[in-house]
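Help wanted!
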Amino acid sequence: MRILTGVQPSGQLHWGNYFGAMKPIIDSQDKGETFVFVAQYHALTTVHDAGRLRTATWDVALDFLACGLDPAKACLFRQGDVPEVHELAWLLSVVTPMGLLERCHSYKDKLARGIPASHGLFAYPVLMAADILLYQSDLVPVGRDQKQHVEVTRDIAAKFNQTFGEVFRLPEPLIAEKVAVIPGLDGQKMSKSYNNTIGLFDDPKDVKAKIMRIATDSTPLEAPKDPDTCRVFALYRLFADDAEAEEMRRNYLRGGYGYGHAKKALFEIYQRKMAPFRERRDYLAAHPEEVEATLRAGAERARRAARDTLAAARRAVGLD
Ligand code: ADP
Ligand code: TRP
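Answered by r_m:
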């Protein structure tokens, strides 16, 4: 089974990104053949600054490798290293009905947010379909906002297969329903747009200060507390194993355990669980040649898979 996902380079990683998107992908490397790429061409629909694109691309690669993506198991590459995707995107675009793209929420949302309408922004789902179909992916882990794009991919693949003969496997979206929305410092969804994030690799002093500022209710220290309505507990549970979470739950219910204690425990578990990731990220940042070699090897592996599919698609349309 092949599992593939693209990640847009979008700056500093926060806890919500890590637990909501990245960890499930990293965990999938033990379940199937995992392909992860940095979606640079997609980012170009909104980022028009070469320096920013380069830095952000590099950061995504470092983050994935630091957090446990193992290049011996999973294939990590830059979208820009596999230009075959554009030829496939064209072959798909000639069977993509305009109406299908006009219905995409993501396009309409971006226009509503003031992003200028460009051909690239409109054609984005066709490029995404090419990303997915080029590698004959079975499963595509994505956030809820991207589910429609995977459905569009299925429609385009079916239309191509019907028109030119069976070439593509139809992928399924995989939405991590189990991972609830990770709350931010203010209790809303943790998101860059709400300014309520805690960075995964922030300076520990800043992380500690942010944790201490999390608002809690005024239940007195001695009184029992409800773990299920407490933001501190919700965040603690992300890092904790079952036994650790159960222990904190009992502390809350027993009383005599204050929010200050819980915050201290949250900071400690974050530090403990993140220490190996931090160490690995520092190492990788100091050894860019290793990261570059990993990305190039990933691109080679990806290109081998890509060339087979592209050859089949070219044959099907009569370009051989
Ligand atoms: P942001 O909301 O900070 O702009 P993005 O939209 O760039 O984050 O999200 C990147 C990925 O991280 C998406 O797959 C999204 O589903 C996931 N993600 C972001 N914030 C959260 C959150 N608070 N809880 C769960 N998943 C999240
Ligand atoms: N559009 C996705 C996002 O914004 C990123 C992406 C590009 C992607 N190509 C993909 C995700 C292919 C899954 C499969 O998050």
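OP: Thanks! One thing I noticed: The chain has a mean pLDDT of 95.
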